[in-house]
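Write out this protein's structure.
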Amino acid sequence: MSNVKHPKCPMRDLANQAKARLAKGEYFAPAAPANITPRQREIFLKLSELKKHGEDVVDPIAQLADKKLLGSLSHDERQRYIIQLASDYVSVKNMLDSTHKKEA
């Protein structure tokens, strides 16, 4: 079935975008370990993306924290969020470092 009647349909646009991502090599995300939490998976993907672009993490809390969420939290909740974020960052960083040592 061809799409001659609707050359500008949304499905065709989505397919073209997917083909462009595949051609650039941006289609697949790095594989995160299976035994991590969803928040750690987010951090893993962000750190992988930064490492891919050759950037270093100078201030992990400022670079990884959700600024909108921090603005809406009370003082106690903000402290809890930052402590959990720091703990997750250290765990993911150790996983990444051990993975890179095995590859080298």
